Amino acid sequence: MNPKCPPSLSESHSVGPLAILGLLCRLGLAAIFLYAGVPKVLNAQVFLMETRAYQMLPNSILPSFVVILAMIEVLAGALLLLGVWIRPSANVILGMLIMFVVAISVAMLRGLDIECGCFSGGGQKIGFQLLVRDAIMIAMLIPIYLDRRHLLALWAK
């Protein structure tokens, strides 16, 4: 291609594998966080009991924490789904995933036999498999960060 000539229409609008992978990861994480967050918003009492079992936060702030966390999960998932503020939403999801890994790891080290609270009322016990699942979700963020085109995004920022 001649450097002085603009790229052809087909070249400038081609969709590469990174763009497709970024879209799939973005939509997948959006679905996961919406699926996890909506039941927590709708039934905060169950999520409160599951979070209390971790014994990591004072009871005085726990009710506010669970409501805010559930709303952030839903908001971040919705923004990823819509393709609005993709990078900031991915940063928030990364922060939550790191927090979940720390909480699960500490609970496991303390020998707690509790439900994870990942999908409120889901009944899944904490364990190594959750750490692997969270690591996979963290890895799913990489194509989102690397992709600059953000297919099907309303406002990618």
Give the SSE layout.
Blueprint: H1 9-12, H2 17-42, H3 44-52, H4 62-82, H5 86-109, H6 128-146
Helix pairs in contact: 2-3, 2-4, 2-6, 3-4, 4-5, 5-6
Explained architecture:
By secondary structure, the protein is mainly α. It has one domain (16-146). It has helices at residues 9-12, 17-42, 44-52, 62-82, 86-109, 128-146. It is globular. The two termini are 30 Å apart.
Largest sheet: none
Spans of at least 5 consecutive residues with low confidence: 5-12
Mean pLDDT: 88
User: How many alpha or pi helices?
Assistant: 6
**Spatial separation of the terminal alpha carbons:** 30 Å
Number of strands: 0
Give the domain tally: 1
SS strand fraction:
under 5%
Helix coverage percent = 55-70%
User: Structural class per helix/strand content?
Assistant: mainly alpha
Order of helices and strands: HHHHHH
| Rounded Rg | 19 Å
Which shape, going by the Cα principal axes?
globular
